Amino acid sequence: MAEVIRSIMRYFPLGVAIITTNWKGEFVGMTVNTFNSLSLNPPLVSFFADRMKGNDIPYRESEYFVVNFIDNEKILDTFANKPVKERFKMVKFREGLGKSPILLDDYAYIEAKLYKVIDVGDHAIIIGEVIDGEKIRNNFEPLIYVNRSYYKIHYSP
Ligand SMILES: Cc1cc2nc3c(=O)[nH]c(=O)nc-3n(C[C@H](O)[C@H](O)[C@H](O)COP(=O)(O)O)c2cc1C
Question: Which GO terms describe its molecular function (predicted)?
């Protein structure tokens, strides 16, 4: 049944973001298509991390994470495919309230404090309570990921 899920989800368009954290002094980050807002009261956001790849470990072991909203395909690709140790050498960033990296190319970001981790099958649902965030610029073209490619959405707000 995993193949059924894979073959159908491949054509289901999803938004993408980069989740970053400061894991015991080391900057780590990954591209995800599983980010969502979960609750407004309390203000919660979530994403799913692949436990088989160990993608959950930095986030369950850190107090804070940042959701980076970014329309730069090259940076999204960097945070999915380049070696983990190289990633932060290839981008500019500043540190947020909890010292997680906020990418300077973001058009918006949300900073969250770890609220709960729920292990479900081979993934973990990482839930954070929003503590900060900002829309940095208005001129952006959000990207979606479908059929293994990124597409820009053109629209007039
Ligand atoms: C578009 C896209 C979305 C992804 N979404 C997720 C996700 O939601 N959760 C996850 O754990 N990994 C996701 N990944 C894979 C991680 O980005 C990748 O496993 C992580 O950066 C670690 O890199 P590594 O697997 O090369 O060690 C996604 C990859 C791509 C290209």
Answer: FMN binding; riboflavin reductase (NADPH) activity
